Amino acid sequence: MTPQRPREADAIPQLDGMPVGTPPAVEPSASHPPGAGTLYAALDLGTNSCRMLIAQPKGSQFQVVDSFSKTVQLGVGLEASGRLSRASMGRTVQALRICQKKIEKHGVRRMRLVATEACRRARNAKDFIRQVRRETGLSLEIIAPEEEARLAVISCAPLVNARTEQLLVVDIGGGSTELVWIDLSAVPPEDRAKSIMRLHRGFQPQGEASARVVDWISVPLGVATLKDQFADVEDDAARFALMSWFFEENLASFSPYNAENPRAGFQIIGTSGTVTTVAASYLNLRRYDRTKVDGLQMTSDQIDLVIREYLSLGPEGRRTDPRIGRDRHALIMSGAAILQALMRIWPTDRLSVADRGLREGLLYAQMSADGVLEDGPYA
Predict the structure, then answer these.
(1) What is the pairing mode between strands 61-71 and 40-45?
(2) Pick the CATH number of 149-358 from 3.50.50.60, 3.90.105.10, 3.30.420.150, 2.60.40.1120
(3) Cα 360 to Cα 197: distance, rounded to the nearest angstrom
């Protein structure tokens, strides 16, 4: 399966049946007007995990009221069969029942519940969506790669440095990896973070002094799918090297890949379980602490040091390492291979770690569209 990217010069796809410049609607589950105390839910069903946040607006941010995260391995066997297995669908429905109970408990009326790469690729995805609706009452929406990339980008807006002129946001998922390259050079430094938030309306330019999406790509290789590609390679180090090389090969059509980009004013923000796990390992956190990880700056040398340590531990050592965790040990090396490839390619020696992603982007988009954020709506 080849990477998905638009053909337009500025990487702005046209939505079917909608004129260029029309933002995709954020559909609330009820039409009553939102207020400061309104609760919002955002659910991200990926290839490997099911995660949900329930939050309420607070100033220009939001405050999390409840959360849920469960490894469901929805995409197990998908690479070979092209279908979601009965067992993986059963595990996922059980997790979604818990989400439904939390939504009901908190009386949430405004929500967006989305599914990504596994459901985009599975031949029986529509049957699965109907099963979820029948058994949990939840309406899942399969979103396109462009929207997944856009939501990941706006979730990272608070981490954008005022000195950043060229920004690369990387979201390493279970089934795919989204990369978005944004030119901020025309935006006044004090407005650069806000200009990223305005991308909730789409990747279309919002004016002359606005963030411009130079290019974006969705590579159908995430921590689970990349691991499956090389499952037959027994040697740990050889498998890692092959995964990193193969991921880089899949970036050939991404225009900034071959471009000469200056080191000054360039920032990479990485959002994923891989990136936060590498950060937690570098900090030697035996118990994960989001406040120490989110926003951390790591150098290329620090990232390489952690990856070399992972390789020296071997599969069994990684399985028992408390900094990695039992849910992630089998997937950490495929994620590390993606991360190493990215740090090898682009002209920076630092990575901004983001413990945020699709769920946070969904929340920001809904709240901004409703105008309940202090600095919003970001129109």
Answers:
(1) unpaired
(2) 3.30.420.150
(3) 12
Residue 239 identity (one-letter amino acid) = R
With H, G, I as helix, E, B as strand and everything else as coil, classify residue 151.
helix
Q: What is the pTM of this model?
A: 0.81
pLDDT by residue, tens only, the chain of 379 residues:
445 544 333 333 333 333 333 333 333 333 445 655 799 999 999 999 999 999 999 888 899 999 999 999 999 989 889 999 999 999 999 999 999 999 999 999 999 999 999 999 999 999 999 999 999 999 999 999 889 988 989 899 889 999 999 999 999 998 899 999 999 999 999 999 888 888 877 776 666 678 899 899 999 999 999 998 999 999 999 999 999 999 999 988 887 776 676 667 889 999 988 999 999 999 999 888 999 999 999 999 999 999 999 999 999 999 999 999 877 899 999 999 999 999 888 867 789 999 988 999 999 889 888 888 876 544 4
DSSP states of 54-121: EEEEETTEEEEEEEEEEE--TTTTHHHHSS--HHHHHHHHHHHHHHHHHHHHHT--EEEEEE-HHHHH
Cα–chain-centroid distance for residue 96? 19
**Please, which residues have CB within 8 angstroms of residue 86's CB and are 6 or more apart in sequence?**
none
